[in-house]
Amino acid sequence: MDLLERIDPYLTSDDKVVRHFALNAVGTFPSTKPEWPARLLKEVIEKPEKASDYATAIGDMTFSNEDVPLLMEAMKSAPGFIALSLKRVAEGLPLDVKIENREVLQSVFSMEEWVFSPRWLKRHRMNSNKCLKTI
Questions:
Q1: What is the percent of the chain with per-residue pLDDT over 70, rounded to a whole number?
Q2: What top-level branch of life does the organism fall under (predicted)?
Q3: Which of 28, 30, 97, 110 has the most CB atoms around it within 10 Å of its CB?
């Protein structure tokens, strides 16, 4: 049994100290299970009193297209400062995920915020005109 399997049950523990330790460990671990973002976002939605614990850990995880609707729902149901943290998570989504979910994310980002990082464009060898045409 590896660390990810061992720590999994403690991510949503009712014991605040145990949960905090597990979430901090996940934040420093180089990889996470693909189902964890969705699981923690559901916890944010269902238990807003624990949202601040989960928001930090969620920021370090890799999101897929399937996680975006949950992220949006969590942003709408979370208190102000947690919603802001979740917006930062949305800002950090991979560009391909943002583009595929642009209609859902339009309620989160202004047109000015849809400007893409030159570093991403360089890494993917795209010019800005081609990238902007996809939007």
A1: 80
A2: Bacteria
A3: 97
